[in-house]
Design goal:
Blueprint lengths: L2 H8 L2 H8 L8 E5 L5 E4 L2 E4 L7 H11 L8 H4 L3 E4 L2 E12 L2 E14 L9 H10 L4 E5 L5 H14 L4 E5 L7 E2 L2 E2 L7 E5 L3 H11 L4 E4 L5 H10 L5 E7 L3 H4 L3 H8 L5 E8 L2 E8 L3
Parallel strand pairs: 7-13, 7-14, 8-11, 8-12, 12-13
Antiparallel strand pairs: 1-2, 1-6, 2-3, 4-5, 5-6, 9-10, 14-15
Helix pairs in contact: 7-8
Length: about 290
């Protein structure tokens, strides 16, 4: 998948070439804020790529392209603070409209963050081989926002799928597979089955009932209902490969749901992703209860 090309499709035509020039520098996100110059987010910070300030009209045009000219129908996704376009996560900020304490849309849009996803087959080489030798067991990937959890999860799915493991991927946000048209745009391996567009819990149950997976994979487990899905899956003879926000194990244990899962010994391995500039470090450890 050429995720950068997909991102460029969303921008005004006069901005595309200037923004694309940052590709070789490791472009990670495109930031658009009303009244400010558009910026390219690199490892060392944000860099303006045009002198024209962003207007709300430009933001709305970007959202119209991303939603197929149907911004209002994207309200359920926007209630989570983002929407998905062909595997790209677009973060959205603005003035929300609430009806009976329920989000119903934005009155004004003030900023967008277009994240550029990637495939990285060269990462986690030692960690992948170790998990393969051990015989895959429940593994939790953690890291701070932007550290590369989803990229690592995507690569582990591909690696174990190509080794013959049947992997069911509950891809609620369509960020792991980037299904567009007939199939995934990211390579998740030869024996993976992907369900998108439904909450993780429902997707995981669908895969369990219908696809006979050996491993179930899910990204960014955070809500209590996501943790409930893990509780239901444990004991079903299926291994787990999931990611979560967190800088270390001690931080995870401060969250009641994860503390309970860790105390119950649900996860055998913890893969911690840390970022240092443009580099990432991957640290795999056995989890001691």
């Amino acid at each position: 998948m050429d995720s950068l090309k997909c991102a460029m499709e969303l921008l005004p035509s006069n901005w595309r070439q200037a923004c694309e020039s940052y590709k070789a520098c490791g472009l990670e996100e495109i930031r658009l804020r009303t009244g400010r110059k558009p910026t390219a987010l690199l490892a060392d910070g944000e860099h303006p790529f045009a002198d024209e300030p962003v207007s709300e009209e430009i933001l709305l045009r970007v959202l119209e392209k991303a939603t197929g000219a149907s911004i209002h129908t994207a309200a359920p996704a926007l209630s989570e603070g983002y929407l998905n376009y062909r595997g790209l996560r677009i973060g959205v900020c603005g003035t929300a409209v609430m009806k009976e304490r329920t989000f119903s849309g934005f009155r004004r849009i003030s900023s967008l963050a277009i994240r550029i996803p990637r495939e990285c087959r060269e990462i986690c080489k030692t960690e992948k081989e170790f998990l393969l030798r051990e015989g895959f067991r429940n593994t939790l990937i953690i890291g701070r926002p932007g550290d590369g959890k989803t990229t690592a999860l995507r690569e582990l799915i591909r690696f174990f799928s190509d080794k013959g493991y049947r992997i069911g991927v509950s891809d609620e946000r369509n960020e792991l597979a980037a299904v567009d048209g007939s199939g995934p745009q990211f390579d998740l391996g030869r024996t993976s089955d992907v369900v998108t567009g439904v909450p993780k819990v429902e997707g995981a149950m669908m895969l369990l009932r219908g696809m006979n997976p050996q491993i179930l994979a899910m990204d960014e487990i955070s809500h209590e209902k996501d943790l409930d899905a893990i509780r239901q899956i444990v004991g079903c003879g299926v291994s787990l490969l999931v990611s979560a926000h967190g800088s270390d194990l001690a931080e995870l244990k401060k969250r009641r749901g994860y503390r309970e899962l860790l105390e119950q010994g649900v996860f055998s391995f913890l893969l911690r992703v840390e970022r240092f500039g443009r580099d990432r470090r991957y640290d795999l450890k056995t989890i001691d209860v």
